[in-house]
From TrEMBL:
PROSITE patterns: TIR. InterPro entries: TIR_dom, Toll_tir_struct_dom_sf. Residues 159-173 have a biased composition (Low complexity). The keyword Ribosomal protein does not apply. It comes from the Bacteria. Keywords: Receptor. This is Toll/interleukin-1 receptor domain-containing protein. Residues 2-144 form the TIR domain. Residues 147-179 are annotated as: Disordered. SUPFAM superfamilies: Toll/Interleukin receptor TIR domain.
């Protein structure tokens, strides 16, 4: 199987940091997990714009190296980034924003995506820059493994990945429209697979978040218990006293088959404090909240597995943060 290629979208002002990140990816390249490409690979005599266009339309993983210079660059922002987001939303690529330097990126089109390093903290702000760049390498490895896995067992990444074709059509040479999106149909099998993969993503997210909460907050301990394939318990203790308990499970609930949240430890499946149901439009499969936890305020949101995880985590820890 051909290793997925990683495309670097970056400002030349950040070329040195791009080189450092590429060094962190050396192990992945030696193991043939990925290939990498950026504009410094363009050969003499090769058409610059066409070479970039070929890769931005073909490569499976796109790293947006975000900085004030990246956002200020018309080419990076208006051409490369916009096309990258289109392909991500169509399930043709995985876009990973890599925050190099502090800037106003949260309100950009890629601000909705999970960024690296952790918590979107700029690499330049980390006391150990190598640690921050290692997190980038790990994110790239996870994305590459998703692209290399069989489609029926691939881990959940973005909601659109379920509809990704095995091999993308080659990009047409010369001028073309960027308005190429067509309506898609999703079967019940697609929706069931998405639900199962989303629950696995949520389970890992809750487990990792509880561990990180324990590490960062003295006196607090997060405990994760996986009961079976369809149920897990999450508990937070403060000085030995339980201050938050929740159950997450699939199936049952008050509103049919979905992913459910219940306060406390529940072994039954006939009640819920919040339910996320699997829905689809003409482009993607996603999760939608019934809004029981927030009086219907969240019902219109289309949640990816990442967004659903953040939503469920907030239900668990929100009262501890106020």
């Amino acid at each position: 199987m051909t290793a997925p290629s990683v495309f670097f979208s970056y400002s030349h002002a950040d070329e040195a940091m791009r080189d450092q990140i590429e060094k962190q990816l050396s192990t992945l390249k030696r193991q043939r997990v990925i290939e990498t490409w950026h504009d410094r690979h363009i050969r003499p005599g090769e058409e610059f714009a066409q070479a970039i266009d070929d890769h931005i339309n073909r490569d499976r993983i796109i790293l947006l190296l975000v900085s004030p210079d990246f956002i200020a660059s018309d080419y990076c922002y208006e051409i490369e980034m916009q096309r990258a987001i289109e392909r991500h939303e169509a399930g043709e690529a995985t876009v990973i924003p890599v925050i190099l330097r502090v800037c106003d990126w949260h309100s950009t089109p890629f601000g909705k995506l999970q960024a690296v390093p952790r918590d979107g903290k700029a690499i330049k702000q980390w006391p150990d820059i190598d640690e921050a760049m290692l997190q980038v390498a790990k994110a790239v490895r996870q994305a590459a493994e998703r692209w290399q896995a069989p489609r029926d067992t691939a881990s959940a990444g973005s909601t659109a990945e379920l509809a990704t074709p095995a091999t993308p059509a080659p990009a047409a040479a010369g001028p073309r429209s960027s308005n190429l999106r067509l309506a898609k149909n999703f079967t019940q099998r697609d929706k069931d697979r998405f639900k199962d993969e989303a629950f696995e993503y949520i389970a890992k997210f809750i487990e990792n978040s509880l561990a990180e909460l324990t590490d960062r907050n003295s006196g607090y301990e997060g405990v994760f218990k996986r009961i079976d394939a369809n149920r897990l318990f999450a508990t937070i203790y403060h000085d030995g006293k339980d201050v938050a308990r929740a159950t997450y499970f699939t199936g049952g609930g008050s509103f049919g088959d979905g992913i459910n949240y219940v306060q406390g430890e529940a072994t039954g499946s006939n009640t819920t404090n919040e339910t996320l149901t699997v829905c689809a439009d003409d482009q993607s499969v996603f999760l939608r909240s019934f809004g029981m936890a927030n009086f219907g305020a969240d019902r219109e949101q289309k949640l990816s597995p990442q967004g659903a995880s953040e939503y469920f985590w907030e239900l668990l820890v929100g009262h501890l943060q106020r």
